[in-house]
Amino acid sequence: MRARRLSTAARAVVLAISLIPFASAPLTLAGDRGPIVSARPPSGESFDPARVRISFSRVARNLSSPVFVTHAGDGSGRLFIVEQTGRIKILLNGTVLATPFLNIASKITNGGERGLLGLAFHPDYKSNGKFYVDYTNTASNTVIAEHTVSANANVANATGRTLLTIGQPYSNHNGGMLAFGPDRYLYIGMGDGGSAGDPGNRAQNINNLLGKILRIDVHDPPGSAQYLIPPTNPFVGTNGADEVWSYGLRNPWRFSFDRRTGDLWIGDVGQNRWEEIDRSTATASGAGRGANYGWRVMEGNACYNPSSGCNTSGKTKPIAVYSHSVGCSVTGGYVYRGLAYRELVGGYLFGDYCSGRIWALRAHGSSPQTPVLMADTSLNISSFGEGQDGTLYVTDIGTGDIWQVVATPR
Known about the structure:
Layout: E1 31-32, E2 52-60, E3 66-70, E4 79-83, E5 87-92, E6 95-96, E7 102-103, E8 116-121, H1 125-128, E9 130-136, E10 142-148, E11 161-166, E12 178-180, E13 186-190, E14 212-216, E15 244-247, E16 252-257, E17 264-268, E18 274-280, E19 298-299, E20 302-303, E21 320-323, E22 330-335, E23 347-352, E24 357-362, E25 372-376, E26 381-386, E27 392-396, E28 401-409
Parallel strand pairs: 1-2
Antiparallel strand pairs: 2-28, 3-4, 4-5, 5-6, 5-7, 8-9, 9-10, 10-11, 12-13, 13-14, 14-15, 16-17, 17-18, 18-21, 19-20, 22-23, 23-24, 24-25, 26-27, 27-28
């Protein structure tokens, strides 16, 4: 995520959702209503962007700078909304509860690309009550902390256990995404430390934690250990930081795992020409293990440093890119695996923070792919999110609204 470049005044105030290039009519809002779920099962990889249109149903409004929405995996039906300003709110039965689930506003630095940025619930949250947050502390460094729920299921303990503190040389490119993988390890997205052009070449330095996806084991570390290192991390026992899982990232603003295949999808924010989506296919050793996504040697598929003749050997190329003629800051999304919209199953949706456009890729399609434009909105898309039932959501940091993705066949 980066500061919005396009003029908001130049765009419609109301969501003017339109567009698949072959659309016969503009898309419309589905209105304000609760989550839509049906029992209709998915039928294979049926996604074809020519046969589906998307619209949006508002499920919550007037949040304070929402940057993420997720679920606890506990069957409660609750959605947890991360506010950059330092609070996590609960959406339950169409109502945002007045008391925050977590309030750590006094612990954070908020503004620009800093603040409370990430949330992931432990796979055993229902029994152990543990969850993890990523925030910028008052010293402007990244903190990964473990918290627990209190006796009240809708209120967490504000005092947490710090797992990692990572120094930030600049105020931007903080990363912030947290997610548990299919292997039950915690994955942590770290930007390259900021400024422009990665002046410290941190993303390519495997001994530095910036410009990386990290992977740690938080399952009951012994004694005073804050976490353990998974033994299959690529640099265990050799040169490189043990926590590093993959590297060469500029600012991975939202990544996700395909809940059916385990594939890893990353939206990596570009410098000044190209935005990229990376896909690492799941293997026996895990999706993305040891992958070098190219930054700062490459921006998308193009050479960046040096500007020509760069060494692309060993780099994992993007599955898709788009230029700054149509956006300026990618927001990674999710592969739809829900039950409600059979025609959307197997489609990876992602967007652009600056332009509000939303595109799709085929989860099992070839690489590279050309993104298909699904909607052109007036949203400041700070994140996508996924409910426990697979429902997809979009957060608008500008208005503070949360929108559910609705699909209809053509």
